[in-house]
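Example 300, ligand heme C.
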Amino acid sequence: MTTNQKYNQFIAFLIFSFVINASLSSRNWKAPDDQKDKNSYIKFDASTAAQGEAIYNANCASCHGNPGKNNALKSLNPIPPDLSSTASQSLTDGELIYILNNGAGLMPSFKNSLGEEKEWMVISYLRGFNKNYIQELSKFDPAKSKLVKLVSSFDKASNSIIVNATADEKNGKIAIVGAEISVFVKRYFGNFQIEKALKTDASGLAKFSFPTDLPGNKNGDLEVLVKLYDENYGEVQVTKTYSIGVPTDKPGLNEDRAIWNTLVKAPLWIIGLYATGLISFLLLLAFLLNNLRGIFNSKV
Ligand code: HEC
C-alpha cells in the first residue's frame, strides 16, 4: 500500500466515524445533569418486567415496535429508536424515566397517563434486553412518607408561617433535616406559589414571613398548602386555613360580564337596532309573499 492509499483510507475512516458519531448523538433531547442518576425505588424482577411488557405493548409498541424486531413506525421523523439497541441501553435509568416523564418531539409525556410506578415497570421490561445491566436501587422508600408528620402554624408576632417536619421512626421521633419546603396559597385555578427556596434546619423547622397583602375571602381566610420533598421520605403535604389575608368582598369579575346577569341590561340603541332589523325583514317577507300570490292568481 502506498502512502497515498493509506492517507485515503485514513480520511475514509475519519468520515465514517464522524457519520457514526453523528447518528449516535442525533437525539433531540437531553436530561438535565441532576436527573441522570435518578434510580428506581422498585426492585426490577420477573414480575415487574411482565407488568412492564403489557404496559409497553399498550403504550409504546405502536411507535417503537417490539424490541429487537426492527418494526418501528418508519413514517415518523426521527424514527422511534429500537429500545433494545446498544444506543438506547446506554442511557441511564434516570435518563429513561426523564424522557418518559417529559417526552421529546413526537414522543408524548407519560407522566400523567402512566405515572412513575408504571414507567419504572416499563424500564424494568426494557432492561431485560440488556445482559450487562445491573440495577442500582434508590434510597427512597415510598412507605416512608407515611411516617412523616408535617405541621404548619402561624406566628402572629413575626407574621410568619412555621413548618415543623418530623418522622416517627422505630427508634423514636426524629427531625427531617434539609428537606425542601414550598408554600402555596390555594386559588380557584390551581395553586399560587409564594415560597420555594426553603429548607428545614437541624431541628426540622422552617420559617418564612408571610406577605401581608394577599387577598382572602370575606373574612380574610387563606388556604395555605405546605409541601415537603425529601430524598428519603418523598413528598408530603398539609393544608391549613388561616385568617391572614386581606378581607375581600367584591362581586366577582364574572358577575358583570356574565351573559345571564340581571344587573346590566342591553343598551337601548342595541334593542332598537335589533327590533328595526327584525321588523324590516318581516315586512320584506310579507311583500314578497304578496307578490308571489299575485303571480299565481294571474295564471290564465
Ligand atoms: C407517538 C410515538 C411514540 C410513542 C407512543 C412512544 N415513543 Fe418513545 N420515542 C418516539 C420518538 C419519535 C423518539 C425519538 C425522540 C427524539 O430523539 O427526537 C422516541 C424516543 C424514545 C426514547 C429515547 C431512546 C434513545 O435512544 O434516544 C425512549 C427511551 C423511549 N422513546 C421510550 C418510550 C416508551 C417506553 C414508550 C411507551 C411508554 C414510548 N417511548 C412511546 C416516539 C414515541
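Summary: The CA atoms of residues 19 and 144 lie 49 Å apart.
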